[in-house]
Amino acid sequence: MTRGADASGQWPEEHAPVTPDWACGSCGDDWPCDTKRSRLLAEYQADRASLSVYLGACLAAATNDLRDAATASLQDRFIGWVPRNPRTA
Ligand SMILES: [Zn+2]
User: Fold this and answer.
1) Does 69 fall in a domain?
2) Which residues pair with 23 in a beta bridge?
3) 8 lies in some domain
4) Cα-Cα-Cα-Cα dihedral sign, residues 15, 33, 56, 83
5) Checking CA distances to 73, which of 21, 39, 58, 79 falls within 20 to 30 Å?
6) How many angstroms does the Cα of residue 2 sit away from the middle of ligand 1?
7) How far away, in angstroms, is 14 Cα from ligand 1 center?
């Protein structure tokens, strides 16, 4: 029999956020780290609106967790890196 993914759900290369610090669980950078950003863009490339919704939810949670951080810098960190859609409709 083939063993599937184990039940821990902790993949070393998952680059998932670790709350309440919102550091990357894989590389330790501020989340989303460069690797995660690249993956998110690839994952949501056909649906950038959903990416914005997802990041907005993360930002809201992070704003709640990181009360000492400036809101503007958090917005920049969570959403500001997303390339703007050239079509503004
Ligand atoms: Zn990472």
Assistant:
1) yes
2) 18, 30
3) no
4) negative
5) 39
6) 29
7) 8
Distance 1 CA to ligand 1 centre (A): 33
Q: What is the distance between the alpha carbons of residues 44 and 20, in angstroms, rounded to a whole number?
A: 25
pTM: 0.79
Q: What is the mean pLDDT of each run of 10 residues along the chain (89 residues)?
A: 49 87 96 97 94 97 94 96 71
In a domain, 57, yes or no: yes
How far does the centroid of ligand 1 lie from the alpha carbon of residue 85, in Å?
25
Cα 32 to Cα 58: distance, rounded to the nearest angstrom: 10
Nearest to 28 by CA among 19, 9, 15: 15
Domain coverage including residue 46 = 17-78
Contact 61, 19 (CB under 8 A): yes
- 7 within some domain: no
| Cβ atoms of residues 26 and 35 within 8 Å | yes
Number of domains in the chain: 1
Q: How far apart are CA 77 and CA 63, in angstroms?
A: 11
